[in-house]
Amino acid sequence: MKERVLITGAAGFLGSHLCDRFTKEGFHVIGMDNLITGSMNNIAHLMPLEHFEFHHHDISKFVHVSGKLDYILHFASPASPIDYLKIPIQTLKVGSLGTHNLLGLARAKSARMLIASTSEVYGDPLVHPQTEEYYGNVNPIGPRGVYDEAKRFQEAITMAYHTYHKLETRIVRIFNTYGPRMRLNDGRVLPAFVGQALRGEDLTVFGDGSQTRSFCYVNDQVEGIFRLLMSDYALPVNIGNPDEITIAQFAEEIIKLTGTTQKVIYKPLPKDDPMQRQPNITKAKEILGWEPKVDRTEGLKMTYDFFKSLPEEKLYKKEHKSFKNYIS
Ligand code: UDP
Predict the structure, then answer these.
(1) Nearest CA to 119 among 104, 108, 129, 110?
(2) Closest to 75 (Cα-Cα) out of 50, 51, 102, 55
(3) CA-to-CA distance for 196 and 219, rounded, in angstroms?
(4) Catalytic residue IDs
(5) Residue whose CB lies within 8 A of the most ligand 1 atoms, among 247, 262, 275, for a mutation test
(6) H/E stretch holding 205
(7) What does the pLDDT look like over 3-57, one tens digit per residue?
(8) Rounded to an integer, what distance in angstroms lies between the CA atom of residue 23 and that of residue 15?
(9) Are 121 and 63 in contact (CB under 8 A)?
(10) Residue 132: which of 175, 73, 72 has the closest Cα?
(11) CA dist., res. 69 & res. 183, Å (int)
């Protein structure tokens, strides 16, 4: 009998790529999503498969899955600052109540559970690059607090189940990841810049553009997550690409990639926007034998091809009104 895996957030960006990977690896995949930020378009190609099933469910409420479960991957959560402003309570609930429900399910099924944590647990970091030992610099009541603190609570309760109930758990701290199926209007920097280039608008750099990020291509991220799940390491592991770049340089790269004739314009820096971010991936290298393989030029090209292939009306879907609050 095939091994059975439950993937929450299955219709989202990372969740859908994980569903692809696990179906390819020969698992029976149960995808779950409440479709608040996810889209069925991301998993439509999997629906006809005999070994894929989809459950439309909000995991903040009791989660029932019949039959055995070998693994649970918890990837349900809004994951962009715009989404946190739009749906702050759901963001807190899915990371806290949702995680609690899934840990209970994992115990009942004797399943191994991997949770998607984030570089946001480091907040606006005072240690650079960020190692797993760094405790972080997080504002609990700022605009990102609903996400950051939910994810920090998620790590705490997962470790508690690990030590108290002896549950097999894994914690991945995901750094900025990009690739096909990102939402064009979620406010994240890559879809924002590419969308602006495709619509013939200027590219909006927040602040002076000197803040840094390090972008990891989705296939590399999925490989790291897969290896971590199959490892026997229960403490958090950073998965990301250490190739760091300023947001101003990133805008220039997008201008070159898209060939847009528009220019860069500057907008106010959102509150608590981290000034620098780069993963230290020594642990992932040593424990998982993992490091990223796709460089940014190649990864951006594949991502741009995806955005270009979207129907034109998607390009003009209005951003949420909270976007204005985000940058003013
Ligand atoms: N950013 C920007 N212009 C935009 C959207 C984002 O300059 O139109 C900046 C944002 O202020 C941040 C960086 O790009 O410094 C990455 O933002 P994103 O929301 O993608 O991710 P996060 O801040 O969570 O890493």
Answers:
(1) 129
(2) 102
(3) 25
(4) 147
(5) 247
(6) strand 203-206
(7) 999 999 999 999 999 999 999 999 999 999 999 999 999 999 999 999 999 999 9
(8) 12
(9) no
(10) 175
(11) 30
Q: Which two tokens stand for residue 117?
A: 């944590």
- Calculate ∠ Cα 222-283-215, nearest 5°: 45
Q: What is the pLDDT of residues 62-114, one digit of tens each?
A: 999 999 999 999 999 999 999 988 999 999 999 999 999 999 999 999 999 99
Any atom of ligand 1 within 6 Å of the Cβ of 124: no
By residue count, the chain amounts to: 328
d(CA 206, CA 189): 10
> Which residue in this structure is represented by tokens 């553009």?
209
Please say whether the beta carbons of 91 and 150 come within 8 A. yes
Q: How far is CA 157 from CA 48, 186, 230, in A?
A: 36, 29, 21
Q: Are 84 and 144 in contact (CB under 8 A)?
A: yes
For ligand 1, atom 11, which residue shows the shortest CA distance?
206
Cα-to-centroid distance, 35 and ligand 1 (Å): 24
pLDDT in tens, 129-145: 999 999 999 999 999 99
242 within 8 A of 214, measured Cβ to Cβ? yes
Residue with CA nearest ligand 1 atom 25: 176
Residue type at 102 in one-letter notation = L
Residue whose CA is closest, atom 5 of ligand 1?
A: 189
CA 64 to ligand 1 center in whole angstroms: 37
Q: Is the CB of 211 under 6 A from ligand 1?
A: yes
CA R_g for the chain: 19
Verify whether ligand 1 is closer than 6 Å to residue 81 (CB atom).
yes
The DSSP 8-state label assigned to residue 186 in this structure reads S
